[in-house]
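Aim 2 progress update. The chain analyzed this quarter is reproduced below.
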Amino acid sequence: MSITPAPTPEIPDEERRRQQQEQEYQQQQAYQEQPYEQQPAPEPQYYEQAPSPEQYVSPKLERARRENAIWKWIVLAMAVLYVAGSIYFIVDLRGRLQKVEHSSESLHGDVHELNRKLGDAQADTDTLASQLGITKKELARRTSDLQRQQRAAEERLAEQQKQQISAVSGEVAGVKTEVGGVKTDVASARSDLEATKAKLERAIGDLGVQSGLIARTRGDLDTLKHSGDRNYFEFTLIKNKEFTPVSTVSLQLKKADRKHGRFTLNVRSDDRVIEKKNRNVDEPIQFYTGRQHYLYEIVVWTVEKNKISGYLSTPKAAPMPVTAGAN
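Predicted structure tokens:
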């Protein structure tokens, strides 16, 4: 006669398998903890279906699987970071190379600009030679110094460019500093020439004020007009009782001494008449006019019988005449 187990409530397969696995695992743990002699024989288990080895997973194996999954995510994250870092490095390197190329182009532009300025300086020295009375030896020496500085600058720039290509960064500032030094040297040389020119062609006016550049001929006046520092109005006065308008003032010749190169004239400005008596040729005649007290200068370069010729010099900011033009 066979014994049939009592029927149990219907449980889902998954839950039933899980309960069976837990029960089996607990029995194994209890069995292992008892002494060998006291360990009871395992009771027979009744299964609707024999559990397969794949359905039971020990905690150690489950833990190993979780750790394996964690390491996989860690390796994947490191791979993503490595790829992102590589992309950033490539982009940054490309940007630096572009900056180097742009800096090289800027350096070439600086060299061309320096060559142009040196050419202008050489042209200025040729123009100043006749006005300043500088000897050819002095001009040749200064020109040689400028050319030597130019060659030295070009050599330094070429060397800096070679180092810049290999170093990628840090050299551009040095090259620009060298170029700035050369430009400073050129500016200093030109400043020396301008100072020499000022000493030779400037004079103290009759008001005790340092005069601007003085033109002693019509050619000198054309040079001053092209410089654009002041406004110049050329005039010729004949001795009479009438005033002649020149720019925003009026002039009247009172006396002309051809033999001694002296003259006397009246200046009418701001509703008043100023007498300039017994003045000499090429002497700056100065007076203030206008609300801003602009300094006007008159220079006469020729004195003839009852006639003088010269020019009136006014600041650039001074008012301009309505009917007359200035250069």
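DSSP finds five helices and eight strands in the chain. The first strand starts at residue 231 and ends at 238. These observations will guide the mutagenesis experiments scheduled for the next reporting period.
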